[in-house]
Amino acid sequence: MNTLSFASIKELRALLEKKELTAEQLLDHCIAQFKEKDGILGSALEVFDKESILKARKEQGILAGIPGILKDNIAQENRTLTCASKILEGFESTFDATASSRLKEEGALLIGRANCDEFAMGSSTETSAYQKTKNPWDTSCVPGGSSGGSAAAVAAGLVPWALGTDTGGSVRQPAAFCGIVGSKPTYGLISRYGLVAYGSSLDQVGIFTRTVYDNALVMSAIAGTDSHDSSTIASTKTDFTRMLDGKLPENCTIGIIENALYAEGMDPEIVAALEQAISVLEKAGATIKKIKMPVLDYSAAVYFIVSRAEAASNLARFDGVRYGLRSKNAKTLEQMYSNTRNEGFGSEVKKRIIIGNYVLSAGHADAYYKKARIVQSMMRQGFIEQFKDCTLLLMPTHPAPAFKFGAFDVDKLQMDLQDYFTCAMNLSGNPAISVPCGFTKNNLPIGFQLVGPHKGEEVMFKVAHAYEQKTPWHKMHPQL
Amino acid sequence: MALITKDEVRKIAHLSRIGIHEDEVEAITNELEAVLAYAARVNEVACNQQGMLPQNVNVFREDQARPCDAERIKAQGPEVEEDYFVVPAIIEHQ
After folding, report:
1. B26 interface with A at CB cutoff 8 Å
2. Which of A121, A174, A241, B23 could form a Cys-Cys staple with A151, CB 3.0–4.6 A?
3. What is the interface pTM, i.e. ipTM, of the complex?
4. pTM score, two decimals?
């Protein structure tokens, strides 16, 4: 059954079409995999019962009969939705997120809720109020975060795809830590209707799969304008797999962001793996152009400010009035708000709200929030300039491989800096994908990022796919 | 000079309606100080001119009434009476 566990969506669809496998058998297999392995891994907060999954099933579609799992901040009708927070314990969504409903329309089976950092705030999935998720390559290490449950489940072969959300790198970093493919689309390509908001100018739904083709396929199912999310951009239904022929596009120029690749603190093993990946692309015919984007050195600082400011506003709604937890220790309304939020939120969430309100407050907004917005606009402009000459840009996803649990308990700033290479594209709105490119000597996965121009997903997938076809990394799987 | 003081942490926590314990204030202040010190580097590079900001525009549509089961939504409330969410008194009784 190991071959079924690590089969791609493409391979599973072929088996289903040839009737060598039924959707029910595949679902049984995935549920059994969770039963067998997730006790150790801790990737899912819940795996739904088979009957209720099959009840919502559509027979046709590009993902017909293919099971997957959604990060627990994406609404699924009649399912619990907690954002891995105590403040939403027991909350049940009364509607489907657009991403969920589109997946169902295309026949996918949504089989559970994946663990994550509380309200998607973190880079290790350790801030979940419910459980730890382990990295399937080394269970003493974190899977990354915030979408760590989604990444671990796909990497371990429990499901062939999963959705996460990416506000500062929360899909790409765990994908790299777990040795799989993780994509974040152009801002506005995938609807956020039904996604619990963290930083609204940054949040995007992202996709985890073990191959680039599968990633493009899931993107094809969920991307496109949605009247329920006014921030979606105008885009028609696209088959993002149609250009994937294993070849680079013509006149392909890859810009290597040198101040990122050779940034201080980069693990030499990761630098070596990326240099190897660059040479693979060069041999395949790409023109390699070395570039510098000094403004990217400030992206984490900008991200700290913008994301916390938006989080402070978005999380004001959790007040104990209409749903979720309410503190029992309160005589007045104000005490009820304060105690509910103190008891319901974990410490990382509380700190981000306080920082956010601080950088927005009178006397500080000029020095932080307004300056951050200016640097954000410089970054956006910087990418536009680079894409005049470059087809795609290439940079690290992560400075170091997956770390041990508790590694940053003391120096929390180092945890926040996990977003160093990923958050720039949330701030600029560009699409990016993390692709596996090797392992450290301790057998921990390494990934690199390809960055595309706005709405450049097709060329981004095409180059990522061409690279993947020339390398063995996507065929390597952890043994749990 | 510290970027954020303990008093500011207490004040912002209060305005954010997060009741933090007094024995947490120092640790929170230190952590926030580290984040703000890092974030303050935006001032090194920010010029006075705003460049290209997102080109997203507001998209309007007519409001649409959709059927929804009010009982299910009310059932999520911590305390509900008839069609109202009940909250504690706004002013404390003497």
Report:
1. no
2. A174
3. 0.91
4. 0.97
